[in-house]
Amino acid sequence: MHIQSGARSDLGRVRKNNEDYFAIEPSLQLYVLSDGMGGEAHGEVASQLAVQTVLTHCRQGENSRTTPIFGEASPDVSERTNRLASAIHLANRKVFDSATANPDQQGMGATIVAAWVDAQRLSIAHVGDSRAYLLRAGTMDQLTADHSLVAEKVRVGILTPQEADASELQSVLTRAVGTKSTVEVDTDEQALLVGDCVLLCSDGLTRMVTDPEIASTLLTSTSAQESADRLVELANDNGGADNVTVIVLRVDEKSTGLFQRLKIWNRNSG
Amino acid sequence: MSRLVLKFEGSELKEVPLGTRPVTIGRAPDNDIPIDNLAVSNYHARVYVEAGSLVVEDLNSLNGSFLNEIRVERAMLKDGDAILIGKHEILVDQAHDTAAPEDAARRAPAPRVSETMVLDTVERRKLLDMAVAAGERSQLAPERLRVPTITIMRGRTDQKEYRITGKLTVIGNSKMATVRLRGWFTPEIAAQINKHEDGYYLGRGDRVPKVNGSPINGLTKLKDGDVIDVGRVRLNFLYRE
After folding, report:
1. I want to staple B18 with a disulfide (CB 3.0 to 4.6 A). Which of A168, A176, B2, B76 is the partner?
2. Is residue B218 within 8 angstroms of chain A, CB to CB?
3. Which residues numbered 66-85 in A keep a CB inside 8 Å of some CB on B?
């Protein structure tokens, strides 16, 4: 299978700084997105530092198996997924240390969502309210659970999703990268299938565009980059109240050789 | 119009109109009726309309909610009822039933938090404690203590039984498969099971699996005892002690 990616980050229609940041490492099939906070341009510092740290740490992990693991490795997930979580633990430490060392950066932090594809395995790790979605066979599922006050209340059943959407407390996070010396990182794994589409996005998209609108945009685009562009335009058309950043991955068939065609034939007949 | 009146030692502290949305009562400041007292849980109780009746529901609070001096988990309310929470009393007043603008108080402009901020650890801890309490109540916790297993009922696989421990369990003939299917033309990834915070979810692979006879649509949460069909293989999802 082959991963086609597209991405776009935009200021939106209201904000003066873009505190979102993203990076793609094609050779590793590693995709990282972060939404910074902290005002006075320090949100930008936090999101860039977080993303760069994740890339660097994952690269080192690939080059040398002796690269230390930060945080606790879980027996429930693959080595790659543990490495990705380790990278976010390290990013947390770096942002926190920077904010501690520079009094003017006090309070800065960031969300982060990262995807790493290894053969057919998709590793996801996240902190905060930036999300990962998986669109598969026409159905879109959110792979990440937001670390926000309203989302946690919905999960324990004291708030309905409708109330959450209307809440004025949507921006209150329960976890972020860099605001404490340690952070809890959530991970997920999926076996990827040809035809899958994975979306990473900041809340600037999901506050402006509904899930069905997102799904239909992904379904009707002809390339990952077109999806990314259209999603950002949609967020801006709907008000663009915040910075908006998206990374779109499409899983394509690698070749249509005889063996592949046999398998397709088998799938259609099965 | 109907309203709730908060009273403490006989004096009226606050009144809240009853609209279509639930009214929450608790110690956390974002409740509709916040009560700053240690005897009151963060999210202690709520009052809402269900099928035309007014209902009070205790949110698994530590010290309980009392309706006319009887501890209740959930009870129907009528005009004049008194809910006791800690030392505070909340009176149900449905006598004012005039066509007053519904939800007027709620529609008042609320300060909108547009800048992202992070809750401090203490607040988060409270929320997690509440989540744990809710989890225990919803019977999720016992399932988590047991080990999920897959037993093969029919079809060719490399084992007869599997313990599901990882976040991702692939069913197919791929190298990454936990449940290895045998035979010609079996798909690399026929189906998959993903472990989430609240349980195990079945997802499709190159096949659309069936749960208890019905093809799944998107990620589907598995229940104890579910029978899963993937191609010609039939599996049983069970929680074992």
Report:
1. B2
2. yes
3. 75-78, 81
